[in-house]
Amino acid sequence: MTATVDSVRSRVDDALAEFMRERIYREKPLWGDAIAALISEYVTKGGKRLRPELCYWGWRAAGGSDTDSIIKAAASLELFHAFCLAHDDVMDNSDTRRGKPSLHRSLEKTHRDMGWSGNPTAFGRHMAILAGDLLMSWSDQMFQESGVGARWIHAARPLLAQMRSEVVAGQQLDLRIQHRTAPTLRDALRVIEYKTARYTVQRPLQIGAKLTGDASPGLMAGLASYGVPLGEAFQLRDDVLGVFGDPSITGKPVIDDIRDGKQTALIIIARELAGNDEREVLDRWYGNPKITQHSAKQVRQVITSTGALEAVENMIGDLVADSLAALEQTAAVHPDAKQELAGLVDRLTRRDA
């Protein structure tokens, strides 16, 4: 089979659907039909499947052949990601995820629909935390039972553990930066490195390569040099879309990041470059829960007029060049994978959602 981006994603979706059918069937008597269905839908509906895709191409980069076992191992990363998103949305008190109600909001609605007693908001939050814990456990099971040789599963586990530690570190750095009075660009970029670049791109690639049992030190280093700047550029693009994106495409209102006062590289640069009048607009409206569409437009105008948007676009361009150069210089990458990885750079950094 000649693998493509679309075919890999489709096979990951199929592997997740099959795994979830089996697990939900077993767990339904304990969780109940309504909640079990919500958990299943949360995993199987929507999402870019980026981490499984990169894990797959890390495997192919190391010369691995196209097999169902690597698809299953890669798909297990999506279960871990679902755990991260469920907990992240509780911490951020997010109402939506991928254009739909977040898991804790869906569980809150289930509580109301069922007419259960107690506080529906607390129920939704508590159950989403537990559902996330369950998905993390299932991620381990799917990885272990993927069909990849036990020796190579064992060899890849330290990288898997490191990926998990790094994303937790990134999350706590993100929480801390939101409570600082004057976070720096270095602070924001450190969050990006741990919460996105390593977790989303570098480690999935390296895990996939390690699972072949044939990943040279040069290849592992090359995948890191390619993956970190790509992951950073990916997150910077996400930050731009959070303020300037089309809600009908992103599935997220562009006012949310502005109202929540997210301390991204984009807003930190805007504050550094702003004059007195521009800073007054940012101070008044950025992070203001009473912000209107008109005032949000003013914030976007300031981000543009200060040159912050252009600065971030230039950063993305530089990071893309670094990523492509690292890929080109890594001779150990299998030619078939090199072509797909080069294409991924453009797709992840020049996107609308």
TrEMBL record:
One of its GO terms (molecular function) is metal ion binding. Pfam families: polyprenyl_synt. Its cofactor is Mg(2+). Signal peptide: none annotated. InterPro entries: Isoprenoid_synthase_dom_sf, Polyprenyl_synt, Polyprenyl_synt_CS. GO terms for biological process: isoprenoid biosynthetic process. Keywords: Magnesium, Metal-binding, Transferase. Belongs to the FPP/GGPP synthase family. This is Polyprenyl synthetase family protein.
